[in-house]
Design brief:
The protein contains twelve helices and eight strands. By secondary structure, it is an alpha/beta fold. The protein binds NADP nicotinamide-adenine-dinucleotide phosphate.
Length: 274
């Protein structure tokens, strides 16, 4: 099958690679994309524009920043697309339902957990919806494991799962980085380091790892935190924790182009925005 991947970012290119490993032809749109995306997607079939791609593909998978997911679906549906549309983004169930309403019967809800799949058993694409099994079959034999969730209360269980999972992983990352910034702001960072060495011996190295791992992606995490906050609010649970996490990641957005920023650089960004 020819399957459009919108767009081949760090994760999108792994989804495209998995489709290619399974014998399909991944396609992408170069219009508006950065040199980085163009370089990553070089091995796949390029279309200059979205209308050209839509004329030729049999299915689409959306893998883009969470705050762009709804707009992406709108652009596609405005062009009259009628095939299968998998939204694999980290979005709130409410956002996924808005996309489902736009797309109609071809909608498949998705959520990806794990790093970009470069080896087996690291990364899972969760799917939910009437066409989920069919979409799962497109990845057979690839490095991306696919798990279909039953449609019980909701047809967007994959998005719900992704929100619950990332609420912890990214929420705790934001909390830990903000604790480091707080200690520095209050001039107790050395005392905190000494106390951690005794009572929480993993937190100093974890802080460094989290700073390096999240710094370059923080610009994208801001939108994801708002999706999680929305998910909490819709479940009548407090959304403020992840609203604050969004603010933490927003302050780190300038680290987008930096490779492997250290904890000191992250703290500097968090404190500079005061
Ligand atoms: N990376 C991971 O480890 C990971 C893990 C689990 C789930 N995911 C999910 O995968 C999705 C994408 O993540 P990623 O890591 O691939 O991000 P990424 O590396 O930042 O790539 C995002 C892609 O979307 C494009 N893009 C940027 N702004 C856009 C916009 N406003 N509208 C449409 N497309 C836009 C980018 O193109 P240009 O840069 O060329 O503009 C790029 O090709 C997210 O929903 C995320 O939650 C990622």
């Amino acid at each position: 099958m020819r399957i459009g991947v919108l767009h081949p970012g760090e994760m999108g290119v792994c989804v495209a690679q998995a489709l290619a490993e399974a014998g399909h032809q991944p396609c992408w749109v170069s219009q508006g994309r950065s040199p980085m995306t163009r370089r990553r997607a070089g091995a796949f079939q390029e279309f200059k524009s979205l209308p050209e791609l839509l004329n030729d593909v049999q299915a689409l998978i959306s893998v883009c920043p969470p705050d762009a997911a709804l707009k992406m679906a709108q652009s596609v549906m405005l062009l009259g697309y009628r095939g299968i549309y998998v939204d694999a983004n980290a979005i709130a169930p409410a956002t996924a339902l808005q996309i489902a309403a736009l797309v109609g019967g071809g909608f498949v809800d998705g959520g990806i957990i794990g790093p970009p799949a470069r080896r087996a058993d690291t990364t899972r694409l969760y799917l939910c919806g009437p066409e989920a099994e069919q979409v799962a079959s497109w990845f057979e034999g690839s490095l991306l494991a696919v798990i279909c969730l039953p449609e019980r209360e909701t047809q967007v269980a994959a998005s719900a799962l992704k929100m619950a999972y990332a609420a912890y992983t990214k929420g705790t990352a934001a909390l830990l980085l903000s604790v480091n910034a707080l200690a520095q702001a209050l001039d107790v960072e050395h005392a905190l380091a000494a106390e951690w060495a005794q009572s929480q011996p993993n937190l100093a190295s974890l802080s460094q790892q989290v700073a390096t791992g999240t710094g370059p992606k923080a610009w994208r995490f801001e939108g994801e935190m708002y999706e999680i906050a929305q998910t909490y609010a819709d479940a009548d649970l407090p959304p403020q924790f992840h609203q604050a996490a969004a603010e933490v990641f927003s302050r780190m957005a300038t680290l987008k182009e930096r490779s492997a920023p250290d904890l000191a650089s992250v703290i500097q960004q968090l404190l500079a925005a005061r």
